Backbone:
């Protein structure tokens, strides 16, 4: 198991780490928005720090943007 995990850090692996990070960041944003809607339906306010949410947006867009450029701009 550890050998498979270590393989993702090699240059010749089959995993695109940028898309994994982008997906995880997007999943966190979706989870926060679902939690905000759920707490809002109960009449409670869920304070979300704007700086933190914007950081997740930047990480998501950056990860997917870099991965997309790498896909279409071959070496």
Residues:
């Amino acid at each position: 198991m550890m050998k498979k995990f270590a393989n993702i850090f090699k240059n010749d692996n089959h995993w695109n780490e940028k898309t994994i990070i982008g997906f995880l960041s997007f999943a966190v944003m979706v989870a926060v928005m679902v939690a905000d809607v759920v707490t809002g339906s109960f009449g409670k306010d869920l304070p979300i720090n704007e700086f933190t949410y914007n950081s997740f947006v930047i990480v998501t867009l950056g990860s997917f943007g870099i991965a997309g450029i790498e896909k279409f701009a071959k070496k």
